[in-house]
Amino acid sequence: MKNSMRLSLSTTLAAVMASPALAASGPFFSLKNTDFVVLLAFILFIAVLFYFKVPSLIGGMLDKRADGIKTELEEARALREEAQSLLASYERKQKEVQDQADRIVTAAKEEARVAAEQARVDLAKSLDRRMAGAKEQIGSAQAAAVKEVRDQAVMIAVAAARDVIAKQMTAADSNKLIEDGIAQVDAKLH
C-alpha cells in the first residue's frame, strides 16, 4: 500500500513537472527549454523508480511469474508422463484382455468341436443300438411267427392225422396201440 502510494505520488509529480506549460524555448540548461525540462523529468522519473525499487519489484514479479510458469511446465510434463504411462498400461491391459478373449474363443470353439464330435459318436452308437434292437425285435418276431406257423401246422397235422386215423382205425387196432404204448412206458421206467 505504501509503495503504491509513493508510486502514484511520484508519477503525478513527474507529470506536473513535464507539462508543456512550464517548458519554453531558450538556452538548453534553462527551465524554459523544453528539451531540458523533459530530460530533467525523465531523470527524476528514473530516480523515483530506482528510489522505490521498481526494477527489483518488477524483476521479482517477473522471476516469480517465471518460477510459476516453470512449475506449471514441470507439472504439465509430469502429468504428460503419467498420462503416457497410464496409456501404455491400459494398452497392455487391453492387449492382455484381447489375448485372453482370443484364448477363450479358441477354447470355446475347440470345446464345441469336441462336443459336436462326441455328439456324432454318441448318435452313431445310439443308432447302432437301435438298429441292433430293431434287428433283434425283427428276429424275435420272425421266430415267434415261424413258431406260431409251425405250431399251427402241427395242430392242423395232428387234427388231420387224428381224423385220418379215426376213420381208418378199428377198435382192435386201437387196443393194440394202447398196449404197445403201455409196454414202451413200462420198459423206459424200469
Largest sheet: none
Helix content: over 70%
Q: Which class of secondary structure composition applies to the elements?
A: mainly alpha
Low-confidence stretches: none
Radius of gyration: 67 Å
Strand proportion, as a percent range, falls in under 5%
What's the N-to-C terminus distance? 155 Å
Number of domain units: 2
Mean pLDDT comes to: 84
The succession of helices and strands, N to C, reads HHHH
Put simply, the count of helices is 4
Shape: rod-shaped
Number of strands: 0
Could you describe the 3D structure shown?
The protein is mainly α. The protein folds into 2 domains: 2-88; 107-189. It has helices at residues 2-17, 34-51, 54-168, 171-189. The longest helix has 115 residues, at 54-168. It is rod-shaped, with a radius of gyration of 67 Å.
Any key phrases for this structure?
mainly alpha, 2 domains, 0% strand, 4 helices, rod-shaped, 190 residues
How would you summarize what this structure contains?
With 190 residues, this protein is mostly helical. It is 88% helix and 0% strand. The chain has 2 domains: 2-88; 107-189.
